[in-house]
Amino acid sequence: MTVINITVEHQSIPLKKPFITALRRVDAVESLRITLHTDTGLCGIGEAPPTVAITGDSLHAIRNVLMQYIAPKILHVNFSTMDDMLHALHQSSPHNGSAKAAVDMAIYRLYAQQASQSLVSFLGGTHQPLTTYVTISLNTPEVMADDAIEAYRCGYTCLKIKVGSSDGNDIARILHVNAAVPHARLLIDANQAWSYAQSIRVIDALKDVDIVAIEQPVRADDRHALKALTDYSPIDIIADEAVFSLEDAATIVRTQSADIINIKLMKCGGISRALEIIALCRKYRVPCMMGSMLEGIYSIEAALSVAMAHRDVIQLVDLDSPMLYETMPRHSVISCKERKLSITALDSSI
Q: What confidence tens digit (pLDDT) does each residue in 35-70 have?
């Protein structure tokens, strides 16, 4: 199969309300949608959002890497296998996970179409809906409690609580939300905002609260603190920003520095790299979360397909972008029916 052209479009999907974390505020999902056009007539689609605060990737940087580094390696080359094309992609430049992720998922879609399969079937999964955590953005304790009530009334029973403000009210935020929706499953995400001492205070304050896990409480580069918290905490600790690559995951697993690893296609570089991390975690029996940035429908569908194909390892799902859109895009491949995520385009055209 030969890629004969690459087209790039800028996509923007407004959100119902601002998405606010300790790192950033977002009012619309922005992404670059790339399409690989082949000599066989097949077209593969991939997407990448700009997440400068997390991956360092802006829209300009993604486009630049795609056209200057990736395109010369894959355009007009007659690849005999998917692995050959993926190898060329991932050897094109160091880092730049978002641009690679977009092309990686597009390549998988090309070969799924060639096999007359949907992406999830091509990956070995089945089309069974999955429940995702839905984000409650960082705000005052009272507003977050109200937002949690609204989400729970809409049927969202798994809530991800964004904390990490410098105002010292994070414990109050969590307790307010817990009191407001006592039957919800709560996951806490500090986005690296706490020190080790702050994390200990929060963990101690939550000893009587049923919390599923705490995600990336300390800086990504402070592995010592992350391990110390994992050893101390009765609540599971998730490594997110601390894990971009297979090597990062291997370090976390080897040192037992977290209980759960959050895999995101934009961090690791796409489906192929995510599958490597999943294989490692399966071997050592480390559960994973399938997460995402704020992303468009095609990249969310790719991550959802991976989660559906590896349910034994992917035990938590955080792919709530479609739930946060103001309006679902036309011809969406994602369905939020009955408050669960599923894939609607089940033929090989996606």
A: 999 999 999 999 999 999 899 999 999 999 999 999
Q: Does residue 200 sit in the same domain as residue 73?
A: no
Gap between the Cα atoms of 215 and 219, Å rounded: 11
Q: How far apart are CA 47 and CA 100, in angstroms?
A: 10
**Domain-embedded: residue 349:** no
Whether 106 contacts 82, CB under 8 Å = no
Asked whether residue 176 is domain-assigned, the answer is yes
338 is a catalytic site residue: no
Q: Which of 264, 295, 301, 320 is catalytic?
A: 264
What is the Cα–Cα distance from 198 to 88, expressed in whole angstroms?
44
Please indicate whether residue 231 is annotated as part of the active site: no
Decide: residue 161, CB within 10 A, 0-12 exposed, 13-18 middle, 19+ buried: buried
Full-prediction pTM beyond 0.85? yes
**Environment class of residue 281 by beta-carbon count within 10 Å: exposed (0-12), middle (13-18) or buried (19+)?**
buried
Structural domain contains residue 8: yes
30, 57, 189, 241: the catalytic one is 189
3-state secondary structure 254-322: HHCCCCEEEEEHHHHCCHHHHHHHHHHHHHCCCCEEEECCCCCHHHHHHHHHHHHHCCCCEEEECCCHH
**What is d(CA 169, CA 155) in angstroms, rounded to the nearest whole number?**
27
- Confirm whether 27 is a catalytic residue: no
340 is catalytic: no
Is residue 196 located within the same domain as residue 294?
yes
Q: How many structural domains compose the chain?
A: 2
